[in-house]
Structure formats: structure tokens, C-alpha cells
Amino acid sequence: MPARNVVVIGAGVAGLTTALLLSKKLGYRILIAAKHMPGDYDIEYASPWAGANYMPVSVTGTDAADWDKNTWGPLADLAANYPEAGVHFQECEIYTREEDKGSTTAHWFSGLLSSSPWFSEVVPNFRSLPKDSLAPGIDSATSFTSVCINTAIYLPWLVSQCLANGVVFKRAYFKHILDAANDHFHPHGKVDLIVNCTGLMASQLRGVQDSSVVPARGQIVIVRNEAGKMLSVSGTDDGDDEACYVMTRAAGGGTILGGSYQKGNWESQADPNLAIRIMKRAVKMCPSLTGGKGIEHLDIIRHAVGLRPVREGGTRIEKERIGGVWVVHNYGAGGAGYQSSYGCAQAAVDLVEEALAPLARL
User: Fold this and answer.
1) 8 A C-beta contact, residue 300 and residue 275
2) How far is Cα 294 from Cα 243, in angstroms, rounded to an integer?
3) Do the Cβ atoms of 336 and 315 come closer than 8 Å?
4) All domains of the chain, ordered by start, with CATH?
5) In angstroms, rounded to a whole number, what is the distance separating the alpha carbons of residues 27 and 9?
6) Number of helical H runs and strand E runs in the chain
7) Does 308 carry a binding-site annotation?
8) 104 marked as binding residue
9) In a 10 Å sphere around its CB, with 0-12 CB exposed, 13-18 middle and 19+ buried, how is residue 110 labelled?
10) Does the keyword Glycosyltransferase apply (predicted)?
11) Are 180 and 174 in contact (CB under 8 A)?
12) Euclidean distance between CA atoms 222 and 202, whole angstroms
């Protein structure tokens, strides 16, 4: 069977992971084409800004839960056996306040806040915390072993693994998805299939223009202080679209203090007032950050804003013919990009093989 030429559009965690899994199979010559590459920091490019961690918000019986479930194994393997990937294990505690029911954050975290979520049988050391151990205002809590990812290390690591498998990288900006099928674009000529991993930009890419994809603005503060564990709570008293979470990235990547979930907000610059609220909430929830002192004792590395590519109806993993060319879509994971990355990528790879199977029989 002759090798098939595939173009993957997008070099975020979705595009890189899909290309990596596809490159492990025989018969594909893969080109990753993207406007933004690891090392870039741009508001259109969500992956570098992520925390990132494994804190599933999906609910039982959904495709999203399956994708999250199928991602735990690969991430745990990286944390245990490949320190150069920038992934490490971290204990995680999730706090629930009854007063947050119905809030934006509680809805976003719906699967995570369950006392017996589906992932309780997937992650190590899942347990409920005793009521008498909880801070005032917290009604229940769970704990488990998770992972936290240093995206500044992990994204280049994915690139290195792709390169080792023969994947080619090329800077490109496409106005229409079929521009990627130009015979002169792929180094081996005619393009047999396009994988669309354009994230938030799927809302603007002609030929796709998915109006159900919207940004959910996340603002964070990155500090040098150590938290000791990963923490999150079901909501805040500061606003329906504000959140509180803390995680320490692997390999000296700093501690992430978050955050917000502002749907429809494209603002790329940090709001200083929101930053103060984020820091105050984090220090209150995790006093060990400053030894019980105020936010003036936080050692700030930088403030950052990222736009989660949220798709109404969830991540799109589908195949279709556009202008006579097969296209496999993998975009719209919102805040679950990393924790569903391997599950989504494998589902997309399965569709690539399904779409190209008739060609293999010719």
C-alpha cells in the first residue's frame, strides 16, 4: 500500500497528540501545518496557557468521559517513566460548597464534584475527606492522585517525539481548510486527508466556520511559591464566572493560581482587579503558599490569559468530505484539552484509518 499524505492543521496539544499517535502507524507521511507553534504565546493559541492537569469534569456515560478515561494511562505513564516530558504526579483535593449549586463554575465542574465520579476507579487513591477536616464553608471534599503538566516542557517534548517519527513541521496560515490540500503544500504531493485541530480558530476557518465554538477566557497568575498539592473549589463569592484553583507545574514550572471561565470574552490582556481576587482566593484556600501571610508574599512570575476553545455540544471528533477531500475534525475540548488529549487523538486516528481504508484496497 502506498503511503498516504496527511496534513494536520494546528500544533496545540490536540494536533500534536493526534499526529504523534498517527505517526506510530505505518503508511502515513504527516505534515503539521500551523500558524502558531510551541514556543509561541498568542491569544489564538490556547495550549501554552493551560495549567495543565488531570481533573475530569466529564460525566458518566458520555464520549467525553471515555476520552478522559483513555488519557489517564498515557499521562500516568509519562509521569512515572518519562521525566523529560514535564509531567508529574500531584495529590489533588476538590472542595464542594452547597451554595455554589447552579453557578457557572459548578456547572463546568459537574462531573468533578460528584462524591463518586466515574474516575474514582481510574485514578489512584480516590477517597472522600472527613467532614471534620474541612475548612469552614466547605460542605464536602474528595482527594485523589492526579498529574500536573508543565506545558512549556510538554509541548516541545511532543514536537520532539513527532520529529523522531518523521513528522514534518511547517508554518502556515489557511483562510480555507482546503488550502491545506494544495498539491504543492505537502512535500510528497497530493494530500489524501486533512486533520482539523484548529481549536478556537475553527470558528473562523472557512469551510468549517463552526459558530458553536466560543472562547472561555481564563486568567491566571503564575508564582514561584510552592502549594504542596493541587486544589480546586466549586465556586467563589466574587462572581459567577470566576473560579479558584491551584496547581504546581512539574520541573520548576511555577504554581498556577486561577482563575476565570468567561464565555464569549476575547480580551487578551490581564485584568489587574481580577488578578488580585485570584491571589486572595488562592492564599485563603491554600495558606501554605505564603505561610499564612497575605498576597504581598506571593512571588509573581507573570500574569497570563488564555482562551479555552469551548464547543457547545462538546469536542467535535467527526469525519466528513469537504470539496472531495476527507477531513477529520478534533477540536473544541474547552478546558479538557490535555486531560482528554490521548483519548480524543486516538478517536481521531481511528477515523483517519476508517476514511482512508477504501484507498488502501485500491
Assistant:
1) no
2) 19
3) yes
4) 4-356 (3.30.9.10)
5) 19
6) 6, 15
7) yes
8) no
9) middle
10) no
11) yes
12) 29
Q: What is the pLDDT along the chain (362 residues), one digit of tens a residue?
A: 689 999 999 999 999 999 999 999 999 999 999 999 999 999 999 999 999 999 999 999 999 999 999 999 999 999 999 999 999 999 999 999 999 998 888 888 989 999 899 999 999 999 999 999 999 999 999 999 999 999 999 999 999 999 999 999 999 999 999 999 987 888 888 999 999 999 999 999 999 999 999 999 999 999 999 999 999 999 999 998 999 999 999 999 999 999 999 999 999 999 999 999 999 999 999 999 999 999 999 999 999 999 999 999 999 999 999 999 999 999 999 999 999 999 999 999 999 999 999 765 54
Q: What distance in Å separates the CA atoms of residue 120 and residue 143, rounded to the nearest whole number?
A: 10
Q: Write the burial class of residue 174 (CB in 10 Å: 0-12 exposed, 13-18 middle, 19+ buried).
A: buried
The response to whether 249 counts as a known ligand-binding position is no
Whole-angstrom Cα distance, residue 342 to residue 75?
A: 8
String of DSSP letters for 157-192: HHHHHHHHTT-EEEE---SBGGGGG-TTTSTTSS--
Question: For 183-246, what is the HEC assignment?
Answer: CCCCCCCCCCEEEECCHHHHHCCECCCCCCEEEEEEEEEEECCCCCCEEEECCCCCCCCEEEEE
